[in-house]
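Course assignment 3, question 2. Fill in each field.
Student: A.L.
Task: Predict the tertiary structure for the chain below.
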Amino acid sequence: MHELALSSAIVNTVCKHAEGRRVTTVSLRVGKLRQVIPDTLEFYFGFVARDTVCEGARLEQELIEARLRCRPCAREWDIEIPAFRCPTCGGSEVEIAAGDEFEVESIEVEEATCIASR
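Answer field:
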């Protein structure tokens, strides 16, 4: 149920950057290693966004596949079953190259309308 806490963090971050303008779309990059359930995140986002500039905004989620990188030989590979040995050199000095992301990529806001006085 960490999607509720993540949704709160998203709304807080977006509200700070929207500067009072209504938000129409929030685009996220979410790594598969974060173990986020997209539908649950979207549900909680709608709940947490109520009565904020994010209310009614569309949540777009780009899921990033998990990848590892071998430090000594720089080989990268997709993770199917967590095996933390490089398939090229057999080394165990590996790091996560992708799949641990959780970041707001962009937001779309409505432009303020200016009403000219006559």
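Instructor remarks: The CA atoms of residues 28 and 105 lie 5 Å apart. The two ends are 54 Å apart (CA to CA).
Grade: pending
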